[in-house]
Amino acid sequence: MADHPALAVEQLTVTYAGEGGRVLAVDDVSFAIQRGEVLGLVGESGSGKSTVASAIIGLLAANATVQSGRLLIDGQDLRALSPEALRRLRGDRLAMVFQDPLSSLTPSIRVGEQIAEVLRVHRGLSTAAAERRAVDLLASVEVPDPPLRARAYPHQLSGGMQQRVLIAMALACEPDVLIMDEPTTALDVTTEATILDLVADLKRRVRAGILYITHDMGVVARLCDRVAVLYAGQLLEEGSVEEIFDRPRHPYTKGMLAAIPRLDRAHPGKRLPAIPGGIPRAGDLPAGCVFGPRCPFAAGGCAERRQPPREPWAVRCERAEELTGMSWPDAVPDNGGAVTDRLGSGPAPLVRAEALVKEFPQRGRWTDWRIDRGGPLGIRVARTRRAVRAVDGVSLDLRPGETLGLVGESGCGKTTLGRMIVRLIEPTAGDVIFGGTSLIALGRRALRRRRREFQIVFQNPDSSLNPRRRIGEILARPLIVFDRAGRKPLPAAIGALLRMVQLPEEYAGRYPHELSGGEKQRVAIARALATQPRVVVLDEPVTALDVSVRASVLNLLMALQAERGLPYLLIAHDLAVVRQVADTVAVMYRGRLCEVGPTDAVFVPPFHPYTRALLSAIPIPEPATARHTARIRLAEMGAAATSGRGCSFSPRCPARIGALCDEVTPPQRILDRGHTIACHHDVVTLGGQAR
Amino acid sequence: MIGYLARRLLYVVFTLWLVTVIVFLVTHLLPGNVAVMILGQYQNVEQLRALEATLGLNDPLPVQYWRWLRGILHGDLGTSVVMDRPVAPILWERIERSAPVAVGALLVTALAGIVLGTVAAVHENRPVDHVVSIASFLGISVPEFFWGIVLILVVSGYFELLPSSGYVSPTKDLFGWLARLVLPVITLALTLVAHTSRLTRSSMLDVLRSQYVRAARARGLPERSVVYRHALRNALLPTVTVLAGNFGWLMGGLVVVETVFAFPGLGGLLVFAIQQRDIPLVEAAIVVIAGFYALANVAADVTYTYLDPRIRYSDMR
Amino acid sequence: MSEAGAGPRLARGRAVRGWAVVRGRPALAVGGAIVIAMAMLAVLAPWLVRYPPTEFHVVDRLTPPSVLYWFGTDEFGRDVYSRVMIGTRLSMIIGCLAMAVCMAVGTPLGLLAGYVGGRTDEVLMRGLDILMSFPSIIFGMLILTVTSPGPFKTALAVGIVYAPMIARIARSVTLSIKEEDYVAAARSRGESHFYILFGEILPNTWAPLTVEASLRVTFAILAAAALSFLGLGAQPPETDWGLTIAEARKFMTVAPWIALFPGAAMCLTVVGLNLFGDGLRDALDPRVARRSRG
User: Distance (Å) from the C-alpha of residue B119 to the closest C-alpha of chain A?
Assistant: First the structure.
């Protein structure tokens, strides 16, 4: 039998019907995956990676068509099959795992039954046999108590479990090809780590060729054997994972690897090497090399000629040989490259948050009512009030010119905390002291006047800007409210704001939908800085942006901070970003701070157990390190504890001492240089844990 | 889930109570009062005063309201002014006649609407879909009274297939009774079937485009299974809710249809009562209608709960 | 490092884009054409008729359509064509008025309930629920009997009856917009409630509300026609669609044209409005996939 690759894609071209005619989504993409091999398909938005997956499985949107190309599973051309034959193939020899597990499971059918259905359809198993096999499959993906979980409905399971169910369904018939489309993007960091472990384990056990789609280079380093880099529908480079990481050939790959912040080291001066510009829109691709406009190595021919793949490396760059060994240009730090000692012992804090608490009352159940003794009539009707403490006694300091990075996973309360500091949410208890004045004590009118001093930049650029207003109007508003007493501002002022964030002045006449994500975020930054605030809260400012754009926006933020001496509260779940730009780091879990300290101190031992778990969960974009780092596995997050006692991390903590951790709030262990860890273990024990 | 249903039930009861208050207030804004109606032309002031005192019409409104409400809770719906008989039996007689029409229309709507909508969605953009879409489009564009008239013209007038009006008791003449039901039921159902099929179609199309249906297809499940097992149940959720709302519309439509077909049912009674300013009759009829509507809502809630497991089961995390 | 060429501008103006949207959608075009035609008819009606609609031509009563009387005559010898023209005018006025009342009453209530939230929202919604639990025609009948019947009262009654529906839609649109970050940004600037509601939220509610309104205006027209049919709308000798059809019932077998022509006019208008509303909704639906994400 000829040795066909499990999956071979040959010159795949996909177009779809756009507003002005047909638009190229995938342009002449070719790659092959052998059995037992994992190919990472890397790309940002608009790269066409999901379209490739949809084309392979035959579920393209109605307005998209495969113009040309071959899709071969084990040598068999999928495009030559009848729809019925293709249907039989799907789920059996070719399986797919999707990005958002909750939306990918039918809400009205129990999960065990959904798995069993696949087995009945493709393998003809009886109902009972299929049920048994479904439970076995759940066990093989490490779902605890499989018989119980099999009877659950999708909404009753956590995100991580739902994804395991999807994986189990995909593996049910032992497929030849498995496509995984960003399976961990919608999950928490610690949950993601467990799923990645599972996939790495599967790689060994299962004989399929796996196409793993992602935008995260760390994940690629951890899991993949080969890598294919997609950009604007074209395959720019393909190679083994070592080749791609150690000897990238295409400028885009070099740029991507240089621009992503890394957990294990920080660039000097808080500046990242950045890729200028933004990703071109599908209908508006540049002539010639599709990456040309953004490439620092571009020469004359790059803008003229479309780049064909250069054998034997499959690189679409005619200058690839010339550029061998040349790395992406570094960023120029403001202070000329001197490494600042980020020890957090700078000037006095401008903003202090003191013991901030936020409770959200919950709908009670009728069993909460009870009858007690007491009161004038001898009995009394009382009700236990249920509430969730999103933020539970957090204190922070923000110093001028410094960035405090607030990290934690989703649901830890960091966004709530950020919004409390700018008084978008009223604290239940606690205070915010601003330059000596207590903000809580201010009356409404006084508060309104002072609002200009603290501003916030939101996470989602699409929802930050009113779609019905022009950029100029959006930027004018803070000026009208604070500086102009209701009169319209001068156009020069708007222009100055746009220049400050490196956008052309003519953008003032455009609407938000005409701007890219990175540009919209710049407008949001300009709007926040228009009132000349004295502190800015940044709520995950780059999370929603494409990877290649993040670095330039971060650099902008750092430059503005250096100019104005602004303190930032940077809320993020990406520890690598925080490592890069923050002076101090605060790690938050379930409403409480586990660890606070200068950046350089927090990222080396001693660690709070949660910090240690977080750090080990994030894959480093370096194959050697990523594959061999021991990971700390945490149990899934359970329901929030309602009692205020004890350490909130205790249920999942690998270093849990026992009842002490559940009952008694851990003390703050003070290490030197402003570094504190909240844990019952002493410093020596915590320091003994090696990274 | 019990808690959810209990809350809904309480809410419905509360709504019904508010309905009685509103009906009472509105009807007592009508010019004239019951005493004037009874005495008619032959009234003089003393007789009027005497009758008003006897009927308790001089008492403050809340007292009158409470009296009336108590009566309802005991089953006494008052006395019709015009017909000089207790209201309850009159209503009951009319309800017996109208119920088959309403229920029939609802059944036809549910069956035909859901089936047509599903078929149209599954065969999107093919001839079947176009036919159903155009037909349902016409259905929502033409008012039921016009349909009724056209049907009378064509079926009764031209083809002379069915009688166009009147009522016969089923015990006396079963076929006659059925024959006189057909046209009113069809007229009433036409608009509703059109609405329901459009709603089902669009809801079904939404579900067929959803991520979990796509994932089901990606598993190679046969299309029939995808549609009927995975999609349909979830697509029916909005339809079920709307069907309950349609019940209210149905009551209104009943009024019009019974007028067109001269069908002596609840709707006709209501029109008569309003025109004659027969206050007790109006109040009782509307409360009864609102009661049915509330029951329909509860039934819809129960069905919705059955169809959507997210309400039935809470987190197992 | 500037971002030249990063965000390509859509070179076409908004007007040109608007036309492109219409061109691809026959429903919108045809529906729009019909609506405009009927609207013009309604406006120009008095000048388009040959005989006054109330003039009796007793000699020619109950004649079928002919050259003299394009739609025939009714039992009093009145020209059906004239009556249909004038009736269309009145019916369309009633429909528009009803819609205006509906939006004027429902939109602020919905906006308020959505924006303020909390107890106010709950109370308002319960109240609206109760109003909606009345079958609309019956409620209309009730109102029109309390006040005396008439075409403009009909418009008012129908408007009030359908206001809760618009209020619900306005409320849900407001609720979803309230969660957007640009509203939070406005709050973080200490903007007044007035500004936030009218400057940030309201401009974004126009589109969905307009779509819903155009889909529901047909309900109002049909409900008004039904009320007229029951005798509670236009009073003789004025005429509108419902009343004409009601009066024509007696003569259905003998002279069907008296009822059929007004009915056809009514149906044509409603069909046009429905087409237009459907087309508008499709055109403005943000879920229609326009670009595929890689």
Answer: 19
| A366-380, A532-546, C43-57 — most confident range | A532-546
- Find residue A397's DSSP bridge partners: A352
Question: Which residues in chain C are closer than 8 Å to B26, comparing Cβ atoms?
Answer: 142-143, 146
**Which chain B residue lies closest to A88 (C-alpha atoms)?**
B220
Tokens standing for A347?
A: 């000037």
Same domain membership, residue A223 and residue A183:
yes
Beta strands at A387-398 and A351-361: parallel, antiparallel or unpaired: antiparallel
Number of domains in chain A: 4
* CB contact (8 A) between residue C145 and residue B146: no
- From A360's Cα to the closest Cα of chain B, the distance in A is 19
In chain A, what residues touch C203 (CB-CB under 8 Å)? 466, 468-469
Pair (A427, A522) in one structural domain: yes
| pLDDT reading at A633 higher than 80 | no
- Taking a contact as any Cβ pair under 8 Å apart, which residues of chain B between 157 and 186 contact chain C? 157
**Per this entry, what is the length of chain A?**
691
Would the ipTM clear 0.85, i.e. be above it?
no
Cβ neighbours of A124 in B, within 8 Å: none
Domain that holds residue A118: 102-172
- What is the pLDDT confidence band of residue A459, given thresholds at 50, 70 and 90? very high
Helix, strand, coil percent values for chain B (each to nearest 5): 80, 0, 20
SS3 A666: coil
CB B165 within 8 A of CB C250: no
pLDDT the model gives residue A670: 84
Instruction: Among A377-386, B269-278, C6-15, name the most confident range.
Output: B269-278
Neighbours of chain A (3+ CB pairs under 8 A): B, C
What is the predicted pLDDT for the residue at A483?
Answer: 79
Indicate whether A282 and A411 sit together in one domain.
Answer: no
Across the interface, do C222 and B143 touch by the CB < 8 Å criterion?
Answer: yes
CA distances from A660 to A593, A634, A680 (A): 18, 20, 8
- Domain C48-293 CATH (choose: 1.10.3720.10, 1.10.1240.10, 1.20.1300.10, 1.10.10.10): 1.10.3720.10
Residue B37 has what pLDDT? 62
Residue of A308, A406, A379 lying closest to A28 (CA atoms):
A308
* Co-location of A24 and A162 in the same domain: no
**Do B219 and A104 lie within an 8 Å CB cutoff?**
no
The last residue of one of the domains, among A298, A323, A348, is A323
- Domain-by-domain residue ranges, chain C? 48-293
Residue A152 at interface with chain B, using a CB cutoff of 8 Å: yes
Checking if the pLDDT of A282 tops 60, the result is: yes
Q: What share of chain C is helix, strand, coil (3-state, %, to 5)?
A: 70, 0, 30
* Interval B6-18: pLDDT, tens: 877 887 788 788 8
* A147/A142 Cα distance (integer angstroms): 12
